[in-house]
Design goal:
Layout (H helix, E strand, L loop, with lengths): L1 H27 L3 H20 L4 H24 L3 H15 L3 H13 L3 H14 L4 H13 L3 H14 L3 H13 L3 H14 L4 H13 L3 H12 L8 H11 L3 H14 L3 H14 L3 H14 L4 H12 L6 H15 L3 H17 L3 H14 L4 H13 L3 H14 L5 H19 L4
Helix pairs in contact: 1-2, 2-3, 3-4, 4-5, 5-6, 6-7, 7-8, 8-9, 9-10, 10-11, 11-12, 11-13, 12-13, 13-14, 14-15, 15-16, 16-17, 17-18, 19-20, 20-21, 21-22, 21-23, 22-23
């Protein structure tokens, strides 16, 4: 009897070992669906055995095994983008084997992959509470804060990470956060630290340059870009920035050459043609400028500036080119001419919206705008008069009510309302001695 029991136990162990080998092999071959099926078989077997165990230490050991298999199962589900299924499996792992930072982080990742940033943040917080010095978890939390546009909190988290390790990407993200908060000086501090650590990081140099260009510090940008281009002369991002600096310093010939080279290196054609045109224009080379503006307009026909500047180029040549210039000016005018019917509808709808919110100053502002694009209806005129009255502007209120009496329907409820309003205002003016 004992011999048969030992044989049975050995056979069972061999079967379980084969199952383990099978799901591992399936995972190694990216056959995650098969791995999940095999893991479920193994989990059912272990759970059945766990239910019959009386030894608490042995039961705890089996629970740990079950949790480990559940984590493998969740990994397979995540690989198949079955994030809800993975969250359910990970919750089961927490209930079975207790809480730990890695499982919380895995749940957070599932929520993040589904776009549920708020839930992801909660689980990253739970993970960090259990492992406060885990650098990976802190970085994930920081990047999530940046994505959620919580820039001040992102900066605070970044400062804590930098106390643990100096990481260029963290410095850049902190610079980006300060930039989003319009704190350029602080952004420059962190961008500069990151750039010193990697002087080939042209994207960070681009951000630094944009801040300096916004401040009109063209000489600083020229120095930075020239230093970089000594290492990487054909960079299609930094060359145009050098051109912008030269243009800002009124070195139009130098800027022209730089933008020509930038186009050869593969920079954006639209901006390249635009600045080539501007450089020629500033040097009074109007014919050449018009050609570059035309090339740019062929790429972006909706940019009114490109049409306008073509017109200016022809206008700089008197006589027979005046009509040509007028064609471009007329076209540019038509491009910026708003759709009057749409402008009327937009502004009158805004006025009605603000009337509902009792923001009467905005009611007046938007009805007056609407009136520039179309005729106000009698009821809108009455509403405009009422808004003026509530703002205490009795004279304009009376003017609008007089307009209403010219257009409104006698005997209607609105007519009676305006009659009562007019009587009220006149009484108020009389009492104030203004009538």
């Amino acid at each position: 009897m004992r011999k048969r029991t030992m044989i049975f136990a050995a056979a069972l162990m061999a079967c379980l070992a084969a199952q383990a080998q099978s799901w591992r092999s399936a995972m190694e071959n990216y056959n995650y669906s098969q791995a999940i099926r095999l893991l479920d078989i193994r989990l059912d077997s272990l759970r059945a055995g766990l239910d019959t165990m009386e030894d608490s230490a042995a039961a705890a050991g089996e629970a740990r095994k079950i949790k480990e298999l559940l984590l493998h199962k969740a990994s397979c589900q995540k690989s198949l983008y079955k994030f809800n299924d993975a969250i359910t499996t990970l919750d089961d792992a927490l209930r079975t084997g207790g809480e730990d930072a890695a499982t919380f982080a895995s749940i957070a990742e599932c929520h993040r992959m589904q776009g549920n940033d708020a839930a992801a943040f909660i689980f990253y917080e739970n993970a960090i509470m259990m492992a406060p010095h885990n650098l990976f978890l802190r970085i994930q939390k920081m990047m999530l804060l940046y994505k959620m546009e919580q820039y001040a909190k992102c900066i605070r988290e970044g400062k804590g990470i930098l106390q643990m390790d100096t990481i260029p990407s963290i410095l850049i993200t902190m610079g980006n956060s300060f930039n989003k908060m319009n704190q350029g000086d602080s952004a420059l501090v962190y961008y500069s630290k990151a750039y010193r650590m990697n002087p080939y990081d042209f994207r960070t140099l681009e951000k630094i340059s944009n801040i300096y260009l916004g401040r009109g510090m063209h000489d600083t940008v020229l120095r930075l870009t020239e230093n970089y281009l000594e290492k990487d002369s054909t960079n299609s991002v930094i060359n145009p920035i050098k051109g912008l600096a030269q243009y800002g310093l009124k070195d139009y010939r130098g800027a022209f050459r730089t933008f020509q080279e930038s186009l050869a290196y593969g920079c954006d054609e639209l901006s390249g043609y635009w600045y080539l045109g501007l450089c020629e224009f500033m040097e009074e080379g109007y014919w050449e400028a018009a050609k570059w503006f035309k090339k740019a307009a062929e790429l972006d026909s909706a940019d009114v500036n490109l049409v306008y500047y073509q017109g200016v180029c022809f206008a700089r040549h008197p006589g027979r080119y005046q009509n040509r210039a007028e064609e471009f000016f007329t076209k540019a005018e038509a491009m910026i001419q708003p759709d009057s019917s749409m402008m009327y509808k937009i502004n009158s709808s805004r006025a009605e919206m603000y009337r509902g919110n009792e923001e009467y100053g905005k009611v007046v502002e938007n009805f007056l705008k609407a009136g520039k694009y179309g005729e106000l209806t009698p009821s809108q005129i009455a509403s405009l008069g009422f808004a003026y009255r509530l703002l205490g502007d009795y004279n304009n209120a009376l003017k609008q009510y007089e307009r209403y009496f010219e257009k409104g329907k006698r005997g209607s409820s609105t007519w009676k309302f305006v009659e009562e309003e007019t009587a009220f205002i006149k009484e108020e003016l009389f009492m104030a001695g203004e009538e």
